[in-house]
Specification:
This protein has about 120 residues and is of the alpha+beta class. The protein has a four-stranded mixed sheet with strand order 2-1-3-4, with helices on both faces. A hairpin with a 2-residue loop joins strand 3 and strand 4.
Length: about 120
């Protein structure tokens, strides 16, 4: 199974993570999740692969959309995933998946743990 990176080319950490993978001779499958939004099921799977206990750990809580949608008070995990499906900017980035394990590239070196 190939390595996959959920990537935003406008994000410096995402670009650095992609460059790190390429420096290790890994050419990942690149998913620009802002152009190709993830499904509810894909996000739920990522939360498990990342080992998170809550969907909120995958969210960018400082995004304007997070505040505008009043997600701070939302306790329903499914509703939080739905918010990320509808507003992919809310998803923390970049995410690298390899062999059913995932890591967020903040800092980029974090992804080395799943290679």
């Amino acid at each position: 199974m190939p390595v996959t990176i959920y990537h935003n080319p406008r994000c410096s950490k995402s670009r650095e993570t992609l460059a790190l993978l390429q420096s290790k001779a890994i050419e990942p499958s690149v998913v620009e999740y802002l152009k190709t939004p993830l499904t509810h099921e894909q996000i739920a799977t990522l939360v498990i692969q990342l080992g998170f206990s809550s969907v909120r750990e995958l969210m960018r809580t400082k995004e304007d959309d997070y505040k505008a949608l009043n997600l701070k008070d939302e306790s329903n995990e499914s509703a939080l995933i739905d918010a990320m499906v509808q507003n992919p900017k809310l998803i923390e980035r970049p995410i690298v998946v390899n062999n059913n394990k995932a890591a967020i590239g903040r800092p980029p070196e974090n992804v080395l743990s799943v290679l």
